[in-house]
Amino acid sequence: MKKQKLSVLAVLFAFLATAVLPLNVMADQERSTFTVGFDAEFPPYGYQDTETGEYIGFDLSLAEEVCSRRGWTLVKQPIDWDSKDMELKTGAIDCIWNGFTMNGRETDYTWSTPYVDNSQVAIVRSDSGITELSQLAGKIVAVQSDSSALAAFTGADATEENKALAESFADLQQVGDYNTAFLNLQSGAVDAVCMDIGVANYEMEARGGGFTMLDERISSEEYGIGFLLGNTELRDQVQETLLEMLADGTFDRIAEEWGLSDSVCLSAEDQLSDEAAAYEKASLWDKLANVCGQLLKGVGASLAIFLLTLLFSLPLGLLIAFGRMSKFKPLSWLVKLYISIVRGTPLMLQLLVVFFGPYFLFGVSTSGNYRFYAVIIGFSLNYAAYFAEIYRSGIQAVPVGQHEACEILGYSRPQKFFKIVFPQMLKNIIPSITNEVITLVKDTSLAFAISYTEMFTLAKQVAAAEATIMPLFIAGVFYYVFNFIVAMIMDKLEKKMNYFR
Amino acid sequence: MNLLEIKNLKKSFGDLEVLKDISMSVNEGEVVSILGPSGSGKSTFLRCISMLETIGGGSMTYCGQTAVSEKDGKPVYVSKAELNEIKHSFGLVFQNFNLFPHYTVLKNITDAPIHVLKRNKDEVMKEAEVLLKKMGLSDKGDFYPYQLSGGQQQRVAIARALAMKPKMIFFDEPTSALDPELTAEILKVLKELAAEKMTMVIVTHEIDFARSVSSHVVFMDGGMIIEQGKPKDVIDNPSNERTKAFLKKLEQ
């Protein structure tokens, strides 16, 4: 048993070791395809057409034109924005072409020259009365994780002014995508969303009013096409074709199609820069320690979700089980429906409903704190349904003779349940409960659905920032150790219940 | 005095009529054995008078207190509070013991007197020790049921019933789950109780035991009482053909 666990650990560490090794760039022989990585929720640069289901956008149109001129086949690869560096390193994509901000990332990629000048702006609800950036003090502000807006506030190159501004916020919330950000803004969960001006114009038009863009700019920035550091060969080919397109007017025509004529800035005079930045070679252990330290901050959040969910769902499950077994049919049916819905839909969806429901169903604006409450409520309601069914099976497994003995001896119903049925049920259900609790440990990562920063969300953010997959594996080790302890405790409990048969 | 008075008891499960018009009375100090082939309804009858099953017709009276009376052909139970009180007048020993597996022998015996009858704990404990001694289980008080043999478990179950100080005890085939050796253990205990004038109603297949211990024997078949009387009349000299056939089968 012990030996087995050890070997599993060994395998995990082996994975970890490979994860931190620099990944080789695939040699570029006769190229036939050109794979563009993009965030599919970033209109107008790259997004999914709701009617055709196809990926379209300004950047994708440019890429298509480049490919047709070079005789390549374009592969549009939507990526998780947090994983963009890993996608690039592994060669899964050839470039990041997606309204990709160069500022602050100058030395992280091999860049094309800038083709769009963009600025970071703040969007507020029109009825909020906010007209200046300084009025955002004490407010909750949302940005996309690892976005330019975030970098403008907290990045290494952020101006002192912006840093001070960010300090004055009640909270700088990181969200996964702009749709979530706007839902948050609309429901009052956040007071402002900061993003690129091009995206902002598009979103505001698409959502049809109710939002206002502040005149003040947070920062100005430029977009370029990012290639893997050192991949100048491919970069030069794409750059050459782009300049051809600029010369014959195709570039400007495409920009106009996408309403970006005011933003484009591609110029034949711009110089390509090739400072192949020294790849930081921190020692493996320093990196490990650093990542572990960052993840530990998220462990508390994960632990809180885990413990509070158990605290509420275990007793709630018992009540639901009673409702399910009630002789009063309408109650029993209602509870059955509840269990069926909770078990039949994704927990992630349930979290979204709990978080956004109050506003979109009842028009109640929620406070920033509600995010955490929503996580706990969502998880508790979900797990209570599963626990209820486990309790029910455990209760029904107690022999009918036990009930009859209680009847004859004159026990009241509460006495019968707590003295006789409950302890026997407990013994019956411990293995199933263990299963469920172990699943819960891993499910805590689903809190990211409503942008609650627990360990896994943090691991993804750190992985994106450090451009390595290591934090994810370390997170995996954390989960494993966590569950190892859980399994050990439950095993002890099971043994303890062995005093009777 | 009649401790138990059953009149015209009827019971059906769906369309199946299991008990058809059974009347019977049990006097204080009497030991009544109920015999009959399986499926004759004797266990159902015992469960009805133990109130584990609701009856479909007739009346039941315990120690002079009416629990169920018949009105317009329908049985009417008295209030829950009254029923709870009436239920304390009898105990029931199950075929498969139904001890509480998570309680020690001592707790199995003392828990209900302490928490249901709200009796003094020290007093109950002292009585339980006496009961255990009587059952030959003095050294088993701290054991859990699974650590005991079937015969020992059944003796604990009898002690548990006695600890409630009922006026009478019903036994539902108390030896059917036991092998012959352990059966003898239990029959010995029942004989001792009979000698102490404990009022008992016993559903059993043990003809010899019924003959030597019972004051009254009831023979049931097809949901009816076919024959009843002194054991020497019913068992040794049956008048009904079905009784004869049943007894003959047992002898083989």
Detailed description of the structure:
- The complex is a heterodimer of chains A (501) and B (252).
- Chain A contains 17 helices and 13 strands.
- Chain A has 501 residues and is α/β, with parallel strands linked by helices.
- Chain A has 3 domains: 29-116 and 222-257, Periplasmic binding protein-like II (D-Maltodextrin-Binding Protein, domain 2), CATH 3.40.190; 117-220, D-Maltodextrin-Binding Protein, domain 2; 284-499, MetI-like (MetI-like fold).
- In chain A, the strands form 2 sheets. In chain A, strands 1, 5, 6, 7, 8, 9, 10, 11, 12 and 13 form a 10-stranded mixed β-sheet that branches. A 3-stranded antiparallel β-sheet of chain A has the order 2-3-4, with helices on one face.
- In chain A, β2 and β3 form a beta hairpin.
- In chain A, α12 packs across α13 (370-396) and α16 (455-466) packs antiparallel against α17.
- The two termini of chain A are 25 Å apart.
- The model of chain A is unreliable at 16-28 and 275-281 (pLDDT under 50).
- Chain B contains 9 helices and 11 strands.
- Chain B has 2 domains: 1-84 and 184-252, P-loop containing nucleotide triphosphate hydrolases (Rossmann fold); 90-165, no CATH class.
- The longest helix of chain B has 16 residues, at 180-195.
- Helix content of chain B is 37%, strand content 29%.
- In chain B, α3 (105-115) packs across α4 (121-134) and α5 packs parallel to α6.
- Chain B is of the alpha/beta class and 252 residues long.
- Classes of the chains: A alpha/beta (501), B alpha/beta (252).
Instruction: Report the C-alpha radius of gyration of chain B, rounded.
Output: 18 Å
Mind summarizing the main beta sheet of chain A? 10 strands, mixed
Helix content of chain B: 25-40%
Indicate the CATH class of the largest domain in chain A.
Answer: Mainly Alpha
Helix content of chain A: 55-70%
Number of helices of chain B: 9
Strand order of the largest sheet of chain B: 7-8-9-3-10-11
Low-confidence stretches of chain A: 16-28, 275-281
